[in-house]
Amino acid sequence: MKVETLTLVLVNLAGIMEKADESLLPGVYKEVGDALHTDPTGLGSLTLFRSMVQSACYPIAAYLAARHNRAHVIAYGAFLWAAATFLVAFSTTFFQLAVSRALNGVGLAIVSPAIQSLVADSSDESNRGVAFGWLQFTSNIGSLVGGYVSLLVAPITFMRIPGWRLSFHLVGMISVLVGVLVRLFANDPHFPDGDLRASSKVHGNNYTFISEIQGLLREAKSVVKIPSFQIIVAQGVLGSFPWSALSFAPMWLELTGFTHGETAILLSLFVVGDSIGGLFGGRMGDILSQRLPNSGRIILAQISSGSAIPLAAILLLSLPDDPSSIFAHGLVLFVSGFFISWTAPATNNPIFAEIVPEKARTSIYALDRSFESVLSSFAPPVVGILAQNVYGYRPIAQGADSIATDRENATSLSKALFTAIGSPMALCCVIYSFLYCTYPRDKEKAQMEALIESEMQLLALDPTSLSGEYSLVKYSENQESYLDEKTVDDMDYSEVDGLDFEDGDDKSLIYRRPTISKFAE
C-alpha cells in the first residue's frame, strides 16, 4: 500500500475513533444519570464542559498542526483523549466525571483541524466535496460504533463493573492502538523527512517561539476579517446547536419505550442516512460548483438546512410516543439524516479551503471549530432546561408509574428538541444567502494572493526572473519599498486590495496564470 493511501486510511481511522469517543456519553445518559443521580440539565452540562475546553484549545491545535507534523499531532491527540476517556470510566462522582470530560476535550480539539487540513491539501476544487464527504462518512462510522458500544454494553455488568463504564474502557484502549498506528505509519506530505518542524522548513531556523506565535496571530486576524468566513461561522454557530441538542436523542427514544437494542438500530439508521447524505451532498456540491461556480454550493446548503425544519416536526411532534411505531421512526430518522448532512462536505469545508491560501487552511478550520463550539456547547443544557422548566419533564418519583411518567417525559423532551432544532435551522437558511455577495469576491482574492505569493517566492530565488512585462505584481516605487519591508507571512489577506494594478493589467485571473510560465523562459 502506498504511503499516501495508508496515511489517509489511518487519518480516517483516527476520525472514526474521535467521533466514537464523542458519542459514548450521550448513548448512556440514562445510565449515568441513574448512577450519579443527575437530571437532564446536569447531563447536558457535561457536554458543555467538554465543548468549552475543546473550543479554548482549538488555537493551540492550529499552532501545532501548522508548525508540526500533522500525523504526529493526530497521534498525540489520540493519546490525550484516550487517557481522559479512561478517567471517565473511573469517575465515581459528578465532579470527577465533569473534569474528565473537560480534559477529554483537549485531545479531541488537537485532532480535528489537523485531519481537516490534511484532507483539504489532498484534494482540489473539482473533488474537494467528495473528499470531505468521505471524511464525514468515516466519522459517522465512528459515531455509529460509539453509539452501538455504549447502548449495547450499557445493560451488561462484568466483574461488578457497570456496562457504561466498560464502554469507555473499550474505546479508550482502541484509541491508544489507533494513536500508535498513526504515529508509526502515517506521513504528513509537508514533512517527508519525519519530525522536522514547519517553521524550520518554511522560515529557517532563526524563528523563535514568540515570532511564530505572532505570525499565527496575524494569520488568525486575517482569516477572521474574511466576510465569507464570518458568515459561515455565524450560520455554523446556529447550525451546530441542533446537532449538539441531538445528544438527547438516545434518551428521548428510550423514554418513548424503545429498548437499548431498538434505540441502537434507530440511531444507526440516522447515522447511515447522514453518511450517505454526506457523500451525496459532497458529490452534488462538486457538480454544482462546476456549473454554478459562485452559487452552486450555497444553493445546496440552503436546501439542506431548510429541509431540517419539516423533517424535525414530523419526527418529534407528529409521530406517536409509542414503541410500536419503530418503522415510522426509523424511516423519518434515515430521511432526516440524509437531507440535513449536506452543508459541511458540500459547502462549508470546501469554501473554507477556497477563500484562504493553503498555508492558512489549518487556522481557518481551527477558528471555525472554536467559534462554533463555544455557543453550540450550550445546546444540551438548554434542551435540559426547556424540558424541565418549560415542557414539564419531571424525574420519576418513588412509587410512581414509571411507564406513564416516561411517556410524559418523552413528549416534553421532544418539544424541547424541536425548539432547539427548528429555529436555528431557519436562521441558518437565511444567513447562507449573504454568501452570494461575499463568496465570489473572497475566492478571487485568495487566488490572487496565491499568485502574488508565488511571484514573491520566485523573486526571492531569482530577482532577475520577474523583471519587466512578465511580472504579475506591477507596483510603483513606494509600493515596491512597502513590499520589501514585508515578508509573505506578514501580509494580511485583505492587503491584496491595496495593490493598485495598472489599467493595462489583465482583469481575469485566468489570463494572469500564463505569465508564470513565462518566468522560466
UniProtKB/TrEMBL annotation:
Key words, A-Z: Membrane, Transmembrane, Transmembrane helix, Transport
Coiled-coil regions, chain positions: none
Domain Major facilitator superfamily (MFS) profile span(s) in chain numbering: 7-440
GO molecular function, one term: transmembrane transporter activity
Cell compartments where the protein resides: Membrane
Residue intervals passing through the bilayer: 73-95, 131-154, 166-186, 231-253, 265-285, 297-319, 326-344, 416-439
Organism domain of life: Eukaryota
Keyword Cell membrane attributed: no
Membrane topology according to the record: Multi-pass membrane protein
Main localization (coarse): membrane
One CC-aspect GO term: membrane
PROSITE patterns in the record: MFS (PS50850)
InterPro entries linked to this entry: MFS, MFS_dom, MFS_spinster-like, MFS_trans_sf
Family per similarity comment: Belongs to the major facilitator superfamily. Phosphate:H(+) symporter (TC 2.A.1.9) family.
UniProt protein name: Major facilitator superfamily (MFS) profile domain-containing protein
Organism: Anisodus tanguticus
